[in-house]
Amino acid sequence: MKRILVVDDEDILRMLICDTLEDLGYEIEEAEDGEEALKKVSYQSYDLMILDYMMPNITGIEVIERLPEEIKKTLPILMLTAKTQEADRQAVLEKGADYFMSKPFSPVDLVNVVEEILHV
């Protein structure tokens, strides 16, 4: 079973993502902020991290920057953001995210991207 860490400070959005992916059989863990996400990836392995860009205290970019290199090499990161300009997408990818998805998004689009990333 594929394990996914969902990191977002918005409870409702996090719940929507988790419910959608759990219904498909993925094992989901949640983190409300970047600090919690960094703790979780330090002692558990995941097949994918879905990471919000704009969170208080530690942004999604800062989470990526603080990840140990060995985790960065093996953990695909899907960055979710309300920033929709091409320059924003490029900046997110250059900082280390593997995939980019603009908010708002449909659950169907999310599932399609997750399945593509995980080769399901």
**Strand-pairing-aware structural class:** alpha/beta
Task: List the strand order in the largest sheet.
Answer: 2-1-3-4-5
Number of domains: 1
Poorly predicted regions = none
Distance between the termini: 11 Å
What's the CATH class label? Alpha Beta
CATH superfamily: Response regulator
Gross geometry: globular
The counted number of beta strands is: 5
The portion of residues assigned to helices is 40-55%
| CATH architecture type | 3-Layer(aba) Sandwich
Tell me the Rg in angstroms.
13 Å
Major beta-sheet overview: 5 strands, parallel
What is the CATH third-level topology name? Rossmann fold
Index terms:
120 residues, 5-stranded parallel β-sheet, alpha/beta, phosphoprotein, 48% helix, Response regulator, single chain, Rossmann fold
Structure description:
With 120 residues, the chain is α/β, with parallel strands linked by helices. It has a single domain (3-118), classed as Response regulator (Rossmann fold). It has helices spanning 11-22, 34-43, 60-66, 69-74, 86-95, 107-118; strands spanning 3-7, 27-31, 48-52, 77-81, 99-102. A five-stranded parallel beta sheet has the order 2-1-3-4-5, sandwiched between helices.
Topology:
Blueprint lengths: L2 E5 L3 H12 L4 E5 L2 H10 L4 E5 L7 H7 L2 H6 L2 E5 L4 H10 L3 E4 L4 H12 L2
Parallel strand pairs: 1-2, 1-3, 3-4, 4-5
In brief, what are we looking at here?
The protein has 120 residues and is of the alpha/beta class.
